[in-house]
Amino acid sequence: MVRIGNREFAWREGVTVADLLKELGDPYPYAVARIGDRLISRPDFDKAAVPNDSEVFLIPLIAGG
Amino acid sequence: MAELKVREIQTLNYERPAIQKGYANQTLDVDLSDSKIAVKPVSEKMKEIFVGGKGFDLWFLWNAVKGSTRWSDPENALCIASGPLGGTPIYPGSGKSIVTAISPTTGSVMDSNVGGYFGPYLKFSGFDALEIQGKTQVPTVILIDGISQQIRILEVSGLPSDAHEISEVLTNHFGQGRPRNISVVSTGPGAKHTLIGCLNFSWYDAKRSKIRLKQAGRGGMGTVFADKGLKAIVARWDTVTTVTNNPVDEATLKKVARLHSQEIVDQDPKQNQMSLVGTAHLVTIMNDYDLLPTHNFRFGQHPQAPKLGMEVYRALFDKGYDGCWMGCTLACSHGVKDFVPATGPQKGRKVFVDGPEYETIAGCGSNLGIFDPLHVVEMNFYCDTYGLDAISTGTSIAFAMECFEMGLINKAHTGGMDLSFGNRASALELLHQMARGEGFGKVVGQGVRRMKEIFCKEYGADRAIMEDIGMEAKGLEFSEYMSKESLAQQGGYGLALKGPQHDEAWLIFVDMVHNFMPTFEQKAEALHWFPLWRTWFGLCGLCKLPWNDIVPADNKQTKEPAKVMRHVGWYTQYFSAVTGRKVEPADLIAMSERVYNFQRVLCLKMGFGRREHDAIPYRAMGPVTVEEYESRKERYDKQLKETYGIDVEGKGTAEKVKILRKLREERYEQLKDAVYERRGWTKAGIPTLDTVKRLGIDFPEVLDVLKAHGVA
Question: Is the CB of residue B555 less than 8 Å away from at least one CB of chain A?
Fold first, then answer.
């Protein structure tokens, strides 16, 4: 099981952040996702495998500096 | 340590006024040349036009200086202020001070904001702002004692020179067993020997029993301080509660403060985790997006960057509450406990290091080609204790390193030092030399603009290439973001009044990554609204981080997510609840617009503030060298073909560099036109008569300056 906000998704081997975003159906251009302490930027969403029993935080990142 | 010897030079007993609606309604003026202390009233008109904080600072500075005043002249006024909302202990980020003066590196108006307890303690002691003019030859400490209602100018001998030690000694000396009652402003030996000195503002961390430091880093404010003969300014104040600032509507203040505080508590763990890692989360993100400066802003990415990432610093940071002002739930001022420097005067001793934050990690790490997190911690410690701006130090060393690698300077100039990128020992040695005012470090400590001059005139280095790669504008070193691929951020840096510091406009993500502003008009609108909105924090004594570093969970569904309008609404309520002035969000922007335009005219008075002063080096706009172009060839070729319709087939890289440069430079000039028009400025970058009249800043002296520049 993988959690994003208040939604839960069945985990499968090799599922990526990009896959989950597709399932979530949220078109917002998130810049970064965080899984635990690991930051993943959008260019790597389709390469970053999500471990089972994890929570993914989607970060819009409009700030900085 | 030598025993302190304190000699009274001047004392003023005063009656502390009750704070009313966030204002003390008076300011403090100290002239060091003749040891005069004066208390001046604040008029309603002054509050209406300048609001407070930076607005008050700039008004004093305007009245203190002539157009011919140089930074080291006695009349240069170092001004420090909080603001009407400053010192509120329940609203996150309400403890900022802002410092202004004529800068040693730019020769023009500088403003630099900083946390710590000084600004609120100054106000609660009875003063909305402090203005220091004159110079003294004796080591001087100014004590602002709000408890005993005394201002004292003291000659203090036997003080150490390093900022950490000065702050500790003076906190113990004046604290009377209550160190939390003291905040010290000081600098260090580097400020005296360079032009990039910073100020350290202290706050007492009761849980760790440590004196902590925050920095007003930019533009050499520490150098002005040291040049005046000041060793420290000490503020002494007692307990702070919500009513200390005497807000008009305490119930609304508490309600809106609770909303904002709670949102940070709820959302920060889901977003940037700043209460755990500060701004260190940005390092790998910037690297992923090709925005992390490496090797003097040549590239935005490096495979070793994750070594400087947040996971590393999360492990290094000491656990515990790290708010630089009371009650801030964002609490991002993290530090490293029991760090043992490998070099310098504190070599082998355990010290507490305040930081590092993103800017120091990028400036003193990746931009020097150094990917050792402990090296960054050591650079951070010595920058603070020597009183040196970590951003200007990093960017200046990076420039010297690139010049060394290009053969523009060599070991004969550097005193035998190998300044290749990645050389940790040399970077640290330069820092120690800056503090001692010796060797090549003394040259680097003059900043990038003066290094270009010295390298050209004394070492025969090629001027043109140094103009392209020397990352300064207006004389201020760039802060640590790559702007090559974001036109809006090029404007954010180049059109910032004081020089390329990101606190006016940080638009990289909303422009380049999210593409929220594809047209010139949209970029111009952003370069109007964001600098004005960010200016407002400096008027009020606030930190901007709670505004947009943590956003509401549903912010993305709002019409303008980049503006975080729910928070803007909360700030509007906050302002009204404290001051009693009924305002809408547009009114907050109008407050800033007055002060912002006034600052531009003050720059003009000082001989700057025109279109030509908004120029930036080409390294900030695009690839200077063939190597830089080749490293992102696909991106640049695509842009030439698809955006500009240029056939790149058969063209060599050098030719493509030249073509791209011409196009990007033209685009930057077009952006200037669009922004000036939106701001109500002439094509020369000067506020029009209509603009200053509309804003109510058409004072005779303002009109005189405009007239002298052909605007009448």
Answer: yes
Judgement on whether residues B217 and B86 belong to the same structural domain of the protein? yes
Between CA B594 and CA B599, with CA B595 as vertex, the angle to 5 degrees is 120
Q: B1 pLDDT band (50/70/90 cuts)?
A: low
pLDDT of residue A64: 63
Q: In what order do the strands lie in the sheet with A54-59?
A: A7-9, A2-4, A54-59, A32-35, A38-41
- Residue B579 located in a structural domain: no
What are the pLDDT digits (tens) for B193-251? 999 999 999 999 999 999 999 999 999 999 999 999 999 999 999 999 999 999 999 99
Question: Domain check: are B373 and B500 in the same one?
Answer: no
Note whether B609 and B684 are same-domain residues: yes
Residue A64, chain B, CB below 8 Å: the answer is: yes
Annotated domain spans of chain A: 2-59
Contacts of A32 in chain B (CB under 8 A): 285
B521: CB partners within 8 A, 6+ apart: B674, B678
d(CA B188, CA B435): 8
Is the full-model pTM beyond 0.95? yes
- Judge if B377 and B513 occupy the same domain: no
Write the DSSP string, B471-523.
-EETTEEP-S---TT-HHHHHHHHT-SSSS-TTS---HIIIIIS----SHHHH
> At B707, is the secondary structure helix, strand, or coil?
helix
SS3 at position B179: helix
Q: Are residues B149 and B167 in the same domain?
A: yes
For residue B515, what pLDDT band results from cuts at 50, 70 and 90?
confident
User: 511-550 in B: which are within 8 Å (CB) of A?
Assistant: 513-514, 545, 548-549
Q: How far is Cα B40 from Cα B23, in angstroms, rounded to an integer?
A: 13
Instruction: With respect to residue B566, please indicate whether it lies within any of the assigned structural domains.
Output: no
A44 touches chain B (CB under 8 A): yes
Q: Is residue B265 part of a domain?
A: no
Distance CA B409, CA B440 (A): 11
Q: Is the same domain home to B391 and B502?
A: no
Counting the structural domains of chain B, the total is 3
Dist. CA B272–CA B456, nearest whole Å: 44
In B423-519, which residue ranges form alpha helices assigned H by DSSP?
424-436, 439-444, 448-459, 463-469, 487-494, 508
| Residue A41 to residue B481, Cβ atoms within 8 A | no
DSSP B576-605: HHHH-----HHHHHHHHHHHHHHHHHHHHH
Q: Integer distance in angstroms from the first to the last C-alpha of chain B?
A: 60
Terminal Cα distance for chain A, rounded:
35
* Same-domain check for residues B236 and B331: no
Q: How far is B545 from B543, CA to CA, in rounded Å?
A: 6
What are the structure tokens assigned to B131, written together?
A: 């203005």
- B313 and B217 in a common domain: no
Is the Cβ–Cβ distance between B542 and B85 less than 8 Å?
Answer: yes
Instruction: Decide which of B196, B219, B240 is a domain's last residue.
Output: B240
The CATH number of residue B502's host domain is 1.10.599.10
Sole residue written with tokens 């207006």:
B474
DSSP helix/strand/coil, B336: strand
User: What would the pLDDT profile of B406-428 be if each residue is shown by its tens digit?
Assistant: 999 999 999 999 999 999 999 99
Domain interval for residue B520:
487-550+584-708
Task: Identify the architecture of domain A2-59 in CATH.
Answer: Roll (3.10)
Q: Give the mean pLDDT of B101-130.
A: 98
Instruction: For residue range B665-699, list pLDDT tens digits in order.
Output: 999 999 999 999 999 999 999 999 999 999 999 99
Tell me whether residue B399 is in a domain.
yes
- Tell me which of B270, B515, B547, B566 to substitute to probe the interface with A (most A C-beta atoms closer than 10 Å): B270
Using CA atoms, how far apart are residues B386 and B434, in angstroms rounded to an integer?
A: 9
Q: For residue A46, give the amino acid letter.
A: D
Could you give the CA distance from residue B247 to residue B254 in angstroms, rounded to a whole number?
10
